[in-house]
């Protein structure tokens, strides 16, 4: 007798029910794992593999990421596509997650060389993270000056350290190694100044997880070759590509696309829009994929 009555009530008052807080909270929680472009069919796994192979022939595997590649767990896929994982080298000691996070913060808006110089300078001025936490902000800024945006980065680093000490009682992020990707994202996003790109970089480089960060280079290429709609923003591009790119290809493809974006100016500038004068990049293999995207637009 009770069942029909309940149904009737729900039909009569559908709005208050769908507007209750728990329902909205559920929607928000699910959002990050949803693909914002579920009907956008690219990139297919085959296309990811083809782009990876083309870029590998063109650039080889970029040296700056070789150390991180050696730290990754071996997958059976490495042998299948003729790109076996090299043996670890002597200088490959695994960095702490906290070192990795601070390195990633220091790498924002600067070159690899300058950010590494800033990290080394910070480490030689303050051998432990406790030393950094108790230092004057100005002294931290001076130590990382060569990496640019010193005041912002110094306050971000100090904030991470003081939050960690307050919440965990020690300056250590190794506990993240035992958490799931979603849990790690939730933990790292709590720190002020840590956005999705920094989190994705820490996941990929320092926690050996399969994630696909979208930096400027990757973002421009993804739009140029039609892997996301032309008007996509960076965060939606991140969500879509993470859905579409097979996990086992994410690390290699990301390093290669990033490197390609830095070296090649053809595919990051849309056709007809200020093309570079030099034409020695006319052999860019990604131009083949641009054509596909143009025929699909409309
Ligand atoms: Zn190119």
Automatic annotation (TrEMBL):
Gene3D superfamilies: Helix-hairpin-Helix base-excision DNA repair enzymes (C-terminal), Hypothetical protein, domain 2. SUPFAM superfamilies: DNA-glycosylase. It comes from the Eukaryota. Pfam families: HhH-GPD (PF00730). GO terms for molecular function: catalytic activity, acting on DNA; hydrolase activity. InterPro entries: DNA_glycosylase, HhH-GPD_domain, HhH_base_excis_C. Residues 78-88 have a biased composition (Basic and acidic residues). Residues 106-263 form the HhH-GPD domain. Coiled coil: none annotated. SMART domains: ENDO3c. GO terms for biological process: base-excision repair. Residues 1-46, 67-93 are annotated as: Disordered. This is HhH-GPD domain-containing protein. It comes from Carpinus fangiana.
